[in-house]
User: Which sequence fits this backbone?
């Protein structure tokens, strides 16, 4: 069964999704919806076999479209997903799921009532180094996991970003852009049972923006595990992206290359004989693996997506808790 695919928006990854669909068995791209001609023109020229339309509703009404890929600004995720669900299209949506838990709930309800899959593309769980860390935790090869320190310090590079990324009301800010990645990884590897969150979230590097650039968060799980999230976007500094995991019988760390700065490498290491030992991991395209996984779930008629709807919602729930904790100046309990 070949499934027709529409891409809604070209965004920062929309053009790449064209090749992703082309390389996915059982999927065929039919149409790209992009209102900005300066973005659509080069893609149209390079892909004459694909239809281009200016409004995503023109793509949703097509009978030859089964799946939509949403690469829209964060504040448009909710409306586009609900519209796609009502149109009977399965939805593969760039993270974050939405800008609030309330929006997530409406999206999930629309997907369920219309019998379609809705998946937030938390691509990092398809990265081999992240998968290796989950295998290490689950296998207890280094004993029981005690705590995690997750870090992402990077350049903000505002000149290369659209204006909405600096407006919190539109889903902008480094928390939505980077923090949701970090929360997703922790929920997947440590489990969903977070009970409390304490956080400092602020705008220090670029105070002229109405969106955060910095946070330090402390998360506590019901089983006693804890994790910190340290993230900051700076004007000048050293980029570091990854996490350190501490076990009763050793340590493990993962790093993910980011940008063109010195020392950027993707890798996985474990402690051995008081030294770090790098463990080889395979080289795959996580975005390709993720979309293929979603297509197969649609073909099988699965009841939920490979990344469940509830997971996408919980990422936003935890993110909102960090903002609430920061505003109140105290630890908050999830669900309270």
Assistant:
């Amino acid at each position: 069964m070949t499934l027709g695919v529409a891409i809604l928006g070209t965004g920062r990854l929309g053009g790449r999704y064209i090749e992703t669909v082309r390389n996915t068995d059982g999927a065929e791209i039919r149409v790209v919806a992009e209102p900005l001609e300066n973005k659509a023109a080069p893609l149209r020229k390079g892909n004459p076999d694909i239809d281009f339309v200016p409004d995503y509703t023109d793509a949703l009404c097509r009978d030859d479209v089964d799946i939509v890929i949403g690469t829209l600004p964060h504040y448009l995720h909710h409306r586009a997903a609900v519209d796609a669900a009502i149109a009977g299209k399965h939805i593969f949506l760039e993270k974050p799921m939405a800008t609030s838990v309330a929006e997530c709930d409406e999206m999930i309800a629309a997907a369920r009532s219309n019998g379609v899959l809705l998946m937030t593309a938390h691509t990092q769980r398809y990265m081999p180094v992240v998968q290796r860390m989950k295998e290490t935790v689950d296998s207890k090869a280094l004993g029981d996991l005690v705590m995690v320190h997750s870090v992402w310090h990077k350049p903000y590079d505002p000149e290369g970003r659209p204006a909405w990324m600096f407006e919190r009301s539109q889903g902008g800010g480094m928390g939505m852009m980077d923090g949701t990645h970090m929360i997703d990884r922790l929920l997947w590897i440590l489990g969903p049972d977070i009970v409390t969150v304490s956080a400092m979230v602020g705008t220090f590097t670029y105070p002229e923006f109405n969106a955060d650039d910095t946070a330090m968060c402390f998360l506590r799980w019901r089983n006693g595990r804890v994790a910190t999230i340290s993230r900051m976007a700076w004007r000048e500094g050293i980029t570091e992206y990854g996490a350190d995991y501490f076990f009763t019988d050793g340590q493990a760390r993962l790093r993910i290359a980011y940008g063109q700065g010195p020392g950027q490498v993707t890798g996985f290491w474990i402690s051995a004989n008081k030294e770090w030992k790098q463990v080889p991991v395979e080289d795959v395209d996580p975005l390709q693996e993720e979309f293929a996984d979603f297509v197969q779930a649609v073909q099988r008629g699965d009841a939920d997506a490979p990344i469940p709807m509830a997971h996408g919602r919980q990422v936003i729930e935890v993110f909102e808790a960090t903002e609430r904790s920061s505003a109140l100046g105290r630890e908050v309990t999830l669900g309270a």
